[in-house]
Write a structure and sequence with these properties.
By secondary structure, the chain is an alpha+beta fold. The chain folds into three domains: 87 residues, Phosphorylase Kinase, domain 1; 184 residues, Transferase(Phosphotransferase), domain 1 (Orthogonal Bundle), CATH 1.10.510; 223 residues, no CATH class. 50% of the residues lie in helices and 7% in strands. The protein has 25 helices and eight strands. The strands form two sheets. Strands 1-2-3-4-6-5 form a six-stranded antiparallel sheet. The C terminus is likely disordered. Bound molecules: adenosine-5'-triphosphate (ATP). Adenosine-5'-triphosphate binds next to strand 2, strand 4 and strand 6. This is non-specific serine/threonine protein kinase. Its EC number is 2.7.11.1. It comes from Allorhodopirellula solitaria.
Length: 698
């Protein structure tokens, strides 16, 4: 491999290069000696990457046995940035895995005993690497940093101590800077799906940790593919095959690899608690030194999750290889883990997202804390509680209406906000887009070693970056469908409710506009207004039903018989409602029937003697219309356009066609058909899949 500097060159006026170590995504790494003889690794930041080096200073003060120390960040005379860091003589985990004999015998000298796993490592080795990585990463998290690029190549074995490296730079280089041909395809295998959406919470490190653990145990990656896009799609949609890892690790890996970041363990400690090494994990030391490093005052721990007890016996439990971080997890901590806790965490996570809910939540918890911490006697507390209840009851005459009014505004606002935020998350194309851009081959001038079974081939000294293959439209749609399918029932219900509220407003506007136009020369009376009210109600109910149908089917394509039958049932229901409402509102249904009823071959039960259609005719008419036109299609979130007037026109023409066989009053029929499609399109969510497809292919 070619390096810019040769042995014995002096850089930064005080370091003598001894040899080049390797070339990474950010630049060349050298082994060098300081003037006093100290061994250091120098990383020369190349390729004109816009590195926010000022941020790295935060990392310079981090000290932890499981982190590769950053000594300094300097610029040379050519204004080239260099990162001076601790030199780690041992191999990185990537090299260890690549050197391990796939047949199960381990070639590395450091390996301890035990049965070999498919990766070639023993379980002891896996524990050593994983616990070391966890301890280092927990320290970063406690200092408010997210690694963002956890992968085997960034984990080092320094004389038996596992160290996490490369944590300073990735934090401060945005996705856009990692675009083009600067990034290794290998990194992509460890990247959490939400990174593409610009989400960089610590959950992305948890996800990467899950992938690493999977690879250590199974000997291969959970999500692999021939192209970056294929890998991205797998990260976004596939479930890991957990049958390939020992059963005691399935839970932790399954949780870490959740697509939804809020479903993952919320921190390293929680993740470790799910491993068989839970008894050995303890983060207090990590937390303490991280806060010191971050310049925070010592006192109460930052949060209950990081509070843990020290245990002098733990080093044995943790194993001799990880002596610096005592790994123990208290029973209290374990008790907090599990499904209940995660569920409550998710709830609080959501609530904390919304400022008003957060403020209310904070006030309530403050009140609860005050109540619990109060030194009042139980009798005193009882008196206070009764007094508060009495005051509330006395004032209920104005408090309740006020509360109802606030709810009237707040609930729709909250639901709409939820849906908009969800919509942003489900637009998985954006994720793929950014992934696609950020993860292309790196034109290293060194070969990157990968086990063929594990790694997608990457560039070598002669290879040029290869264009990424494109995702077809159907693949993109499939990916988006799967992404839509992952949403919870609550979210779906909330979306449906919001659509219903929007369509109600549209129906009201529809009513007002049509009534103003239609009744401008007529004296206002209930009889005159009732057809408009009838029409608006029918259109709204029809749109509501159609939106529900589209929501139920949005996770898959299809227009087969079962769907048409279901749509026909919905149409029949709308026909019935149309008939009943007309009856209630006294709207005449014999208006403008365009053909001789007696001439139709329809059953006589469809029409009264006067020619007025019965409920059966109305039901049959709309059932035929809904089944024939696949009415749910224009409301599908993956439709081509948010609002297609073509679809409205098709509905109107389709209704006219059905009218030729099963007549109903006109123009009411056409208005209802067109109105339902128009209104449901306006109020249905929409994912711009066309642009997603283009972005993915870009
Ligand atoms: N502090 C260090 N001590 C010893 N070797 C190091 C050190 N830091 C990096 N290396 C080695 O230098 C080589 C290049 O490392 P670098 O971190 O730049 O690239 P990478 O991890 O392969 O990719 P990326 O930068 O995209 O994460 C690797 O072989 C790595 O093991």
């Amino acid at each position: 491999m070619n390096f810019t500097y040769s042995p014995n060159d002096t850089v930064l006026d005080r370091y003598t290069i001894r040899r080049g170590i390797g070339v990474g995504g950010f630049g060349e790494v050298y082994f060098a000696h300081s003037q006093a003889g100290k061994e250091v690794a120098l990383k020369r930041i190349q390729r004109n990457l816009a590195v926010e080096l000022r941020g790295v200073s935060h990392c310079l003060n981090l000290k932890h046995p499981h982190l590769v120390s950053l000594h300094d960040v300097c610029r040379d005379r050519d204004d080239q940035a260099w990162v001076v860091m601790e030199y780690v003589a041992g191999k990185n985990l990537r090299q260890v895995l690549d050197d391990a004999d796939p047949s199960g015998r381990v070639c590395t000298a450091t390996t301890s005993g035990g049965t070999a796993l498919p990766s070639g490592l023993t379980l002891d080795e896996v524990r050593r690497w994983f616990c070391g990585m966890a301890a280092g990463t927990a320290h970063l998290h406690a200092a408010g940093l997210v690694h963002r690029d956890l992968k085997p190549g960034n984990l080092f074995d320094d004389n038996g101590i596992i160290k996490v490296g490369d944590y300073g730079l990735s934090k401060f280089i945005s996705v856009s800077h990692r675009s083009g041909h600067t990034e290794s395809i290998g990194t992509l295998h460890y990247m959490a799906p939400e990174i593409g959406r610009g989400q960089y919470g610590r959950e992305i490190d948890i996800y990467s940790a899950g992938i690493i653990l999977y690879e250590l145990l199974a000997g291969s990656l959970p999500f692999d593919g021939e192209t970056p896009q294929e890998i991205v799609v797998k990260h976004l949609t596939d479930k890991p095959d957990l049958s390939r890892v020992p059963s005691e690790f399935r839970r932790v890996i399954g949780d870490c690899l959740q697509k939804d970041p809020t479903s993952r363990p919320r921190d390293i400690a929680e993740m470790m608690a799910l491993t068989p090494w839970a008894n050995g994990y303890h983060a207090a030391e990590t937390w303490t030194s991280a806060r010191v490093a971050a310049g925070e005052p010592m006192g109460e721990p930052a949060g209950p999750t990081m509070a843990a007890e020290t245990d002098a016996t733990a080093p044995q439990a943790a194993g001799a290889e990880t002596p610096h971080v005592v790994l123990r997890h208290s029973a209290r901590r374990r008790a907090h883990n599990g499904a209940n806790r995660r569920a409550s965490y998710r709830a609080s996570y959501r609530a904390s997202d919304e400022p008003i809910a957060r403020a209310v939540g904070n006030s309530v918890s403050d009140l609860r804390r005050w109540w619990q911490g109060s030194e009042c006697s139980p009798l005193g507390k009882g008196v206070i509680a009764i007094a508060a209840t009495v005051i509330l009851l006395i004032n209920s005459h104005w408090l309740l209406p006020l509360l109802s009014l606030v709810c009237c505004f707040y609930v729709p606002y909250f639901l709409i906000r939820e849906v908009l935020l969800q919509g942003r998350q489900t637009t998985a194309g954006a994720a793929t887009h950014q992934y696609g851009h950020s993860q292309t081959h790196r034109d290293h001038n060194m070969p990157v070693t990968h086990t063929p079974a594990q790694r997608t081939p990457v560039s070598t000294s002669t290879a040029r970056p290869q264009p990424a293959s494109r995702l077809s439209k159907s693949q993109t749609r499939k990916m988006l469908r799967q992404s839509l399918a992952r949403r919870s029932r609550l979210t779906l219900a909330a979306e449906w409710a919001v659509s219903a509220v929007i369509s109600l407003l549209v129906a009201f506007a529809f009513l007002v506009i049509s009534a103003v136009i239609g009744l401008r020369h007529t004296e206002l009376s209930p009889i005159a207004i009732s057809p408009y009210v009838w029409m608006a109600c029918v259109v709204w109910i029809g749109a509501f039903g159609l939106l529900g149908l589209a929501k139920a089917w949005e996770s898959s394509d299809g227009e087969g018989f079962p769907r048409r039958l279901t749509a026909a049932c919905l149409g029949a229901g709308i026909g019935l409602v149309t008939y009943l409402l007309a009856d209630v509102l006294m709207v005449p249904l014999n208006h403008d029937l365009t053909r001789e009823i007696g001439a139709t071959p329809l059953p006589s039960s469809f029409y009264q003697d006067s020619g007025v259609p019965t409920a059966a005719a109305m039901m049959a008419h709309f059932a035929a219309l809904f089944a024939l036109l696949r009415m749910w299609k224009p409301v599908d979130p993956l439709r081509r356009r948010r609002l297609s007037l073509w679809a409205v026109a098709v509905a109107v023409v389709g209704e006219w066609l059905v009218q030729q066989f099963i007549p109903i009053p006109q123009p009411a029929g056409m208005l209802i058909a067109g109105g339902i499609i128009l209104m449901s399109q306006i109020s249905a969510p929409w994912v711009k899949s066309d642009s997603v497809s283009k972005l993915v292919s870009a």
